[in-house]
Design goal:
alpha+beta; five-stranded antiparallel sheet; 17% strand
């Protein structure tokens, strides 16, 4: 009991220690004491914002049990704001100004930006401050606070061990900055205090020892996940270092490729000296000039005889000529290299030396040998930077060459804290030189070598730990909830049996799992195999429908779809899973028209464990549609006969006039024949020709009447020209329009071909002409115009009359059935609605052109 009481109170010590550390660091920033804020050289500092957040957070944690909770929440909100803005800067690259808001930093090594805390530090502050604000005596906040506290403890422990093991623990964060040593210690203290606080709250809330189990599992799982994450990070670091070592070998190869040609060229010139190839200094200077062009950084070439006195020097400048006549041994650097050349008879290179501020050079000494006798030396003064030039493939690296601690050559500037973790060193030897290569990758290069696997493992492991804690929490409630679940399933089954729809549940391979009562009744389940739930759902479908649908889906999905249950599954892929018509065949052989909707049954992790087929029996609907179709056909025939009756008088007059002409001409022929005069034969022929034309006209009228009166079907489509359709239709009404003094004119584009039912389209055109006739019958200006033309994707036939037009408020109603503007007894208002239906069955449309100043109805057909 005493130990338990001690545990209950010891957590107060942790925030007090953190408070003391943070206060000390704040004083270090105010007094600009580097040792306080950094602890050790080449280690990251605790920035001012970090120290301030620790001070505020520790204060809030000390007052965590006080009521009201405004002190705790205010402290947590302040820390959450500061760390959240810092984290926002990391994620977006946008500087919020919070880094220098409270204090202007005097030290910026080891940070991405001056005064900015590390990314891991800002994340840990977000976790702790969030827990401080929302911690309550309820399971969900307590479990979340435990998870966040375990994460902070794990991250800070990894950061602390990283300093001990000299491993960059921030590698997995993709950040430049590292958590400081005293930062990690403070996080360890505060996270431990948070876990103790949650433990006590859980104990007071639930009086049972087993309530700790989910929290123990969560803490253990989180720490184990962080350990695995850090091991993967270390593996990532080793791989990244391996890449850097490969780069170092590439640098060595580059240096070899720079020195080797220089050595060979100078040795070649030495041989030419030994063989007397240069009789005069001018001939030597020609070769020397080419060497200056080939090797960047070559400042001077000097030839000395066996007495070590310089004889020739290139270039021929005043400063260079000062070397002529001088002895090589006067230069201590050259003297040491010359001694080795005389001893080993091999080329040697001097140590680098400064020739100007920021510029270093070295001298390559080549022996001139004739046999084994030293006849002289050839020396080349090389400036380091121009000679080495730009090392390839090192755009994202800081590269330096050192000789005995002195930098010979360098590219870029490395942060000392960053270099402590990532710098790769290697020795390079050429001739007698011994250079140290120092190669440090940039942050972008380190990020490119960073794998996403540690992050995935971290997120997945924490999620699993959290879910496992939840599972253990609710395991005790599972058995009591089992009855409720069973009751819910029974209720669901009762609902499915009560709905007058067919429910069939199938597995992913198309086998029937379950059927509701309505499905069993309509499909005569009792007459089939009692193990029908294991049969394929294909047994209820019409094979011809499956075959036709599978062929359509093959074209649409561009893959093979067999005419089996897979055809039904392919409907989901083709976005046709709802409201498709199918015919089911029961065990009695009865065909049942239905509408099918398919829904996938989702299994865990997004997979599909089966499908639910919902059928609606539309037998009664089909019967009603058939009756409606028959009624519409009768109305259409009646409308056609009514139109024919309206035209009867005109047609009779149209036929009587030609008959009168025939009768008159026949009488005249009789008289001419009776007279027997031969000279009238030509006139007789003309009369006969007139009789023949008139008879053809009568035949055309009769043919049009028969075609219009003939009952036809919507599917009797054929191709015909628009002008023939208009010409045949005008035959019925031309005389009627003429008797009323109505001008019926046409403006027709020739050779326009459409596909459709000529009788039905003629009825539509005749309806429009009859409406136009009624509209202009009482007008002073009587004119009706028929036009036809071809657009980009359609052919239009329009009827325009000179009447008063359709009022604006009635234009939306003219296509409605039984709507008419005529007087009672002159029409029932079905002409336009029937005509619109005919056009719709032809894939076209009938509409009123509202942009026209006159009444203009347009027939639009595919063309």
């Amino acid at each position: 009991m005493s130990f338990t009481r001690t545990l209950r109170s010891v957590w107060y010590v942790f925030p007090l220690v953190s408070l003391g550390i943070s206060f000390t660091v704040i004083l270090g920033w105010l007094t600009q004491n580097t040792k306080i804020i950094q602890v050790y050289p080449d280690m990251p500092p605790m920035v001012f914002n970090t120290a301030l957040c620790f001070f505020i957070l520790s204060t809030g944690m000390l007052f965590i049990e006080l009521q009201p909770a405004w002190i705790r929440k205010t402290c947590g909100a302040f820390v959450f704001l500061v760390s959240g803005l810092t984290l926002f800067s990391y994620l977006t690259g946008f500087a919020t100004g919070i880094d220098v808001f409270f204090h202007q930093p005097f030290y910026d090594l080891g940070t991405v930006a001056p005064g900015r805390m590390a990314m891991s530090t800002s994340c840990c502050f977000v976790f702790l401050s969030f827990s401080l604000i929302f911690i309550k005596k309820r399971f969900w906040p307590q479990l979340l606070s435990t998870a966040l506290g375990a994460l902070v403890f794990g991250f800070s422990f990894v950061a602390l061990t990283g300093f001990v093991l000299q491993v960059n623990s921030e590698h997995g964060w993709g950040s430049y900055s590292r958590m400081a040593v005293h930062t990690s210690i403070c996080f360890l203290l505060l996270s431990a205090a948070l876990v103790f606080i949650v433990r006590r709250g859980v104990r007071e809330d639930l009086k049972h020892p087993r309530v700790y189990l989910p929290f123990y599992v969560l803490v253990s799982g989180s720490l184990l996940t962080i350990l695995m994450w850090e091991l993967l990070v270390i593996q990532d670091i080793n791989r990244s270092r391996g890449v850097n070592e490969i780069r170092v070998e590439g640098v060595k190869t580059y240096l070899d490729n720079s020195f080797y040609p220089l050595e060979k060229a100078l040795m070649h010139m030495g041989k030419r000296f030994a063989t007397g190839h240069y009789p005069t200094q001018e001939s030597w200077q020609v070769d020397a000039e080419s060497y200056f062009q080939d090797f960047g950084g070559m400042k001077r070439l000097m030839w000395a005889e066996a007495d070590h006195i310089f004889r020739w020097v290139y270039p021929n400048t005043v400063d260079a000529q000062k070397q002529v006549g001088l002895s090589m041994i006067m230069n201590s650097t050259l003297k040491e290299a010359l001694a080795r050349v005389e001893r080993d008879k091999k080329p040697r290179m001097t140590k680098s030396f400064e020739v100007s501020p920021g510029q270093r050079a070295f001298i390559v000494v080549i022996p001139i040998l004739k046999g084994i006798q030293l006849k002289g030396t050839l020396s080349a003064l090389m400036a380091t930077s121009p000679f080495l030039g730009s090392v390839p493939d090192l755009e994202d690296y800081d590269f330096s060459l050192f000789e005995e601690g002195v930098q010979v050559f360098g590219v870029g500037k490395t942060d000392s804290v960053f270099a402590r973790d990532w710098m790769v060193r290697s020795q390079y030897r050429w001739f007698s030189t011994n250079w140290e290569i120092q190669l440090t990758p940039s942050l972008s290069q380190v990020r490119r070598n960073t794998s996403i696997l540690p992050t995935v493992v971290l997120v997945f492991g924490i999620s699993i730990s959290l879910l496992l804690g939840l599972a253990l929490r609710f395991y005790g409630r599972a058995r009591s909830s089992e009855l409720e679940v069973q009751q819910a399933l029974d209720w669901q089954k009762a609902c499915m049996d009560a709905i007058p729809l067919l429910f069939i549940s199938i597995s992913s391979d198309g086998r029937i799992r379950e059927m509701n009562v309505e499905a069993k009744r309509l499909l005569a389940f009792e007459l089939g195999d009692q193990n029908m739930e294991n049969q394929s759902v294909d047994i209820f479908f019409d094979p011809r429908e499956l075959l036709d649908k599978s062929l359509q889906l093959c074209v649409k999905l561009a893959r093979d779809v067999p005419p089996t249950y897979e055809c039904l599954m392919a409907l989901l892929e083709a976005d046709e899973a709802s409201a498709t018509e199918w015919t089911l065949i029961s065990f009695q052989g009865k065909c049942i028209p239905t509408v099918l909707s398919i829904s996938p049954i989702q299994a865990p992790y997004g997979a599909s464990s089966g499908y639910l087929l919902v059928f609606e029996d539309i037998t009664l609907k089909k019967e009603r549609e058939l009756k409606i179709y028959e009624q519409e056909a009768k109305i259409l025939a009646s409308s056609r006969m009514a139109s024919l009756g309206e035209m009867a008088a005109g047609i009779a007059h149209e036929i009587n006039n030609p008959l009168a002409i025939i009768n008159g001409h026949a009488g005249m022929i009789r008289k001419i024949v009776d007279q027997g005069h031969g000279p009238h034969d030509d006139e007789l022929k003309k009369k006969v020709t007139s009789i023949e034309n008139t008879v053809q006209r009568i035949a055309k009228i009769i043919r049009g009447m028969r075609s219009y009166a003939r009952d036809s079907h919507a599917g009797d489509f054929e191709e015909f020209t628009v002008d023939s359709l208009i010409d045949d239709t005008m035959t019925f009404c031309q005389e009627k329009f003429a008797l009323q003094g109505i001008s019926l004119t046409t403006k027709i584009d020739k050779n326009l071909v459409v596909s459709g039912n000529a009788t039905q389209l003629s009825q539509v055109l005749l309806n429009l002409l009859n409406n136009a006739f009624d509209a202009v019958a009482d007008s002073s200006h009587k004119e009706v115009l028929i036009e036809s033309r071809k657009n980009e994707s359609s052919i239009e036939i329009s009827v325009t009359d000179s009447g008063s037009g359709v009022p604006v408020q009635l234009r939306n109603k003219v296509m409605e059935p039984f709507f008419t503007t005529k007087e009672v007894g002159q029409g029932i208002g079905l002409g336009l609605s029937i005509s619109a239906g005919i056009l719709q069955s032809h894939g076209g449309r009938l509409y009123l052109d509202e942009r026209s100043l006159k009444t203009r109805f347009v027939i639009s057909l595919p063309g």
